[in-house]
Amino acid sequence: MAFNAHLLAGDPSYRSAGISVYIENLLRGLDRGDYGIRLEILLGGGILPPGVAAPVRRSRFRTHRPVRRILWEQAILPSLLRDLEADLLHAPAFAGPLLTTCPQVITVHDLSFLRHPEFFRAGNRLYLQLITGMACRRAMAVITVSHFGAQEVVSLLRVPNERVFTVYHGVAPRFRRLPREAVSEFRRARGLPDRFILFMGTLEPRKNLIRLIRAFDRLNDPELHLILAGARGWFYEQIFAEVERLGLNDRIHFPGYVAAETQAFWYNAACAFAYVSVYEGFGMPVLEALACGVPAVTSSSTSLPEAGGPGVLMVSPEDETAIADGLHRIVSEGSLRQQLAQDGLAYASGFSWEKTAEGTADVYRWVVARKGTK
């Protein structure tokens, strides 16, 4: 089977978050597992995850830019699949080639471009709106990363329910409680404040950071800081403008892109984690924070209750007062913090990338067993 890994990034930008993390960990899990799969990885200029031994077919057509990647996907990939005699293609990011007879599995991470088109650049939004529905209806199976996402695919894309499968994201072993001494040394080396609320993710409108900033301002606690960690995505200018407008430059910090090897230290150093997105297909950072034993505040809507389970304090993402109250409770109520941390650790322990790989392999087998029946 062929796996389109052209969205593997490897550069310190928002392109190395989200989908790239999913592809990297899924490939590692599939390569290590005994699933009876002969994997052929299709790669552009990205970096193959360490330890993955599956054969790679690297494209000579540079696909680092979206338009070039779309051209490769729609014009070159179909003939490549014929040459490989692939019995299956996994397209792990919304869309696959429309003109191919090769059976496809497509992963849809969320449908925010349909629910909230205002959050996207026009070109990206229009491509996803045009191609995703057609590709998913042609696919033999669609994988979603939450049950909420599955409902969205059925209702918005009109994909039959029996061809939609939910396979949750995993959480890597590096996300765990770290020794107090190591965390303290990390805090000193980075010059981090003693008490801070952490957000980790791409700086873009869907993450609802304007309301989070305003809610933080309502706490009126001069010793408490907010760290918004992550690469700049798109339409992020208003985030920095709001911090400036509220005069919070000395208490809200932007460390930028956080390398994978240090992420667990950031989580462990925080007194709380906040992720109050308007819309998510899953919410991987929430699960990572819980695995590190950090009490979290997150949205009560879309998929985030699935990502956080009983280990989070849920608030309405549309209500700044509710967000502020949630932040206040989680940093000030010791018994609540302890209970959330305990419940979060237990909940996160049920997720792994090995389980994600196993569930994905089950979908492959389901598709192969039904080839020619669609």
Any overview of this molecule?
The chain has 374 residues and is of the alpha/beta class. The chain has 14 helices and 13 strands. It has helices spanning 19-32, 66-84, 112-115, 122-138, 147-157, 180-190, 209-219, 237-245, 260-269, 284-291, 304-308, 320-332, 334-348, 353-369, and strands at residues 2-4, 40-43, 56-58, 89-91, 104-108, 141-144, 164-166, 196-200, 225-229, 252-256, 272-275, 296-299, 312-315. The protein has a 7-stranded parallel sheet, with helices on both faces. Strand 6, helix 5 (147-157) and strand 7 (164-166) form a beta-alpha-beta unit.
SSE layout and pairing:
Elements: E1 2-4, H1 19-32, E2 40-43, E3 56-58, H2 66-84, E4 89-91, E5 104-108, H3 112-115, H4 122-138, E6 141-144, H5 147-157, E7 164-166, H6 180-190, E8 196-200, H7 209-219, E9 225-229, H8 237-245, E10 252-256, H9 260-269, E11 272-275, H10 284-291, E12 296-299, H11 304-308, E13 312-315, H12 320-332, H13 334-348, H14 353-369
Parallel strand pairs: 1-2, 1-4, 2-3, 4-5, 5-6, 6-7, 8-9, 8-11, 9-10, 11-12, 12-13
Amount of beta strand:
5-15%
Low-confidence stretches: none
Write the CATH fold name of the largest domain.
Rossmann fold
Biggest β-sheet: strands ordered side by side in the sheet? 3-2-1-4-5-6-7
Gyration radius, in Å:
21 Å
Q: Can I get a quick summary?
A:
This protein has helices spanning about 20-30, 65-85, 110-115, 120-140, 145-155, 180-190, 210-220, 235-245, 260-270, 285-290, 305-310, 320-330, 335-350, 355-370; strands at about 1-5, 40-45, 55-60, 90, 105-110, 140-145, 165, 195-200, 225-230, 250-255, 270-275, 295-300, 310-315.
